[in-house]
Amino acid sequence: MKNFLVEAEIMPKRGVNDPQGEAVLSGLRLLGFEAASKVRVGKLIRFQVAAETSDEARADATSMCEKLLANPVIEEFELEVSEA
Amino acid sequence: MKNFLVEAEIMPKRGVNDPQGEAVLSGLRLLGFEAASKVRVGKLIRFQVAAETSDEARADATSMCEKLLANPVIEEFELEVSEA
Fold first, then answer.
1. What 3-state DSSP class applies to A18?
2. CB–CB contact B46 A24 (8 Å)
3. A56-83, pLDDT tens digit by residue?
C-alpha cells in the first residue's frame, strides 16, 4: 500500500451561472482592479489516497468526486495524482 | 494590451485548522472511503487580466490575491499565469 497525493480541481461548468465569481469580480472592481474579467471560482481539494497503484488511487478519487466532492449537475472536475 | 489567464490556488496554511477539510473527510468516511486522509480544502480562482506583459499580469494578480482573494493570515496562494 502506498500513499498518493490527489489534487481535485472542481469548477463550475461552462454556461453555469457562477454567483461567487460575479461577487469576486464586483469586489475587484470596487478595489479599482479594472484589468480583471471573467472570474470563475471553484474548489481545490488536496488529499491522500492509500492504494496499490496510481490508477487505483485515481479510480478511488474519481469515485469520491462523483459521490461527494463535486456536484456533477453544475460542476466538472479534473484530478492530478502523484506519489506521496 | 493582451489578455492573460490567471489561475490562483488558495489553500489554508500548514498548521491552520481546516474545518471544511475535516467535514469532507468525515463525509468520505461515512460513504465508506477508508483510503482517504489528510484532506485540505482551498479555492481555485480563474480569471483574465489585461496587461502588457506576463510579469505585469502576475504583479496585478498578486495584488488582487493579497487585497481580496486570499486571507493572508490563514491562507497562502500560488499563481499560474499564461497567455490567453
1. coil
2. no
3. 999 999 999 999 999 999 999 999 999 9
Looking at residue A55, its amino acid is: D
Nearest to A32 by CA among B52, B51, B67: B67
Put simply, whether B9 touches A (Cβ < 8 Å) is yes
CA B49, CA A62: separation in Å to the nearest integer? 32
What are the CA-CA distances from residue B78 to residues A53, A68, B20 (Å)? Answer: 29, 26, 20
In the numeric block, which cell numbers belong to residue B77?
Answer: 496562494
Q: From CA B6, how far away is CA B16, in angstroms rounded?
A: 26
Q: What is the ipTM of this complex?
A: 0.93
List domains and CATH numbers for chain B. Answer: 2-83 (3.30.1280.10)
Q: Do B44 and A68 touch (CB under 8 A)?
A: no
Tens of pLDDT along chain B (84 residues)? 999 999 999 999 999 999 999 999 999 999 999 999 999 999 999 999 999 999 999 999 999 999 999 999 999 999 999 998
Strand partners for A51: A2
* A28–B64 C-beta distance less than 8 A: yes
Note whether A81 contacts B: Cβ–Cβ < 8 A.
no
B82 touches chain A (CB under 8 A): no
